[in-house]
Amino acid sequence: MEKSHHYSPVLHLRNFVGNAPAGHIWTYDKQSGNSRSSIPEETGFETHFYSVEKDDGTKDTTIEKFLSDVESKAAPVYRGLLEGKLPEGQPKADFANFLAAMYSRTPSMRRMFGEMQSRGLQIHNYAYGANDKAFEAFVKRSGGPPLDEKGLEALRSALLDPSQFEIQVSRESTLRCLGVMDELTPIFFRMGWTVVYAAHGYFITCDNALTKAVNPKSVSPFYGDGGFMNKTVEVTFPLSPKVMLLMTWAEKPRSQLDAPREAADGWNRTRASHAERFLYAHLDDKRIAQLAAEQAHSRPGMTMQGFGPKKFAKTTIRRKLSRSGAG
């Protein structure tokens, strides 16, 4: 049974190998500041990252097998894109599904999904603490021993201010984030695709390779940025050091585009800021190490506005399974 589950697929990483050493890809760790080279098969994985532990202690690897099938269907389309061939019909749908997987299968998405679960629970509890009748009903339903006035005060304080606690979320429960694929695949399929070439410079990738950016003026203080349906959104996915896929809602997108060094550097900076921890490149370059250092404290996050506690509790993802080979 295969234990090494790649959140950065080998299919993707193989296109970023270099010549020093030959066949290796360089990993830059934003947290430690270290860099190293390794073959794609030994990069971007965790032990049983997509497995679910059964009652008898064995591992269900159905999700890993599903993702492998998604990659297999996308592989020939990937090769065509590297040659500048834009897919249509079913091949485009297959690669749109692969891109949806690349967005939803990452450590970043699973962490944020766990934080969303935690914060949803805290908002739910806050609603009980903020209303007298709701709090009384909450206490009655709890079924615990009767509380004195001091105990009731402590309970209500806990509901209103969860920041004094730490909430643990099961790592396996975060696998439900893969359900986002069903929503994203048709969106990516409908968008206009452009193959972008780095005329000078190069593209890097990371452990959260598919990124989106929107015009800041299109962001609502109440409704957010509209996600991938925002008509100003630019979705990028690096295919190799010299080729990148750009998806937009432009009415007549160009099939191909040459990017100057400044544009390539800008996309690399955005990707580095969206990385959970690791940047990947085809070479050992001090500029990438510097980029990793600059973005050491940056990673995708979620914001929740409106009703709820002023400060949320710290959320940790509980890891039942052993971890190995991160990076």
Q: Count the helices. How many?
A: 9
Instruction: Report the strand count.
Output: 15
Terminal CA distance reads 21 Å
| Stretches with pLDDT under 50, minimum 5 residues | 321-327
Explain the overall architecture.
With 327 residues, this protein is an alpha+beta fold. The protein has helices spanning 10-13, 62-82, 89-104, 107-130, 132-142, 149-160, 180-190, 261-274, 286-294, and strands at 4-6, 25-29, 35-38, 45-47, 52-53, 59-60, 166-170, 192-198, 205-206, 211-213, 234-238, 243-248, 256-259, 278-281, 314-318. 33% of the residues are buried. The model is unreliable at 321-327 (pLDDT under 50).
Features:
single chain; 327 residues; alpha+beta; 5-stranded mixed sheet; 9 helices; globular; disordered C terminus
Q: Which helices and strands, and how do they pair?
A:
Elements: E1 4-6, H1 10-13, E2 25-29, E3 35-38, E4 45-47, E5 52-53, E6 59-60, H2 62-82, H3 89-104, H4 107-130, H5 132-142, H6 149-160, E7 166-170, H7 180-190, E8 192-198, E9 205-206, E10 211-213, E11 234-238, E12 243-248, E13 256-259, H8 261-274, E14 278-281, H9 286-294, E15 314-318
Parallel strand pairs: 7-15, 8-13
Antiparallel strand pairs: 1-4, 2-3, 2-14, 5-6, 8-12, 9-14, 10-11, 11-12
Helix pairs in contact: 2-3, 3-7, 4-5, 4-6
Give the gist of this structure:
The protein has helices at 10-13, 62-82, 89-104, 107-130, 132-142, 149-160, 180-190, 261-274, 286-294; strands at 4-6, 25-29, 35-38, 45-47, 52-53, 59-60, 166-170, 192-198, 205-206, 211-213, 234-238, 243-248, 256-259, 278-281, 314-318.
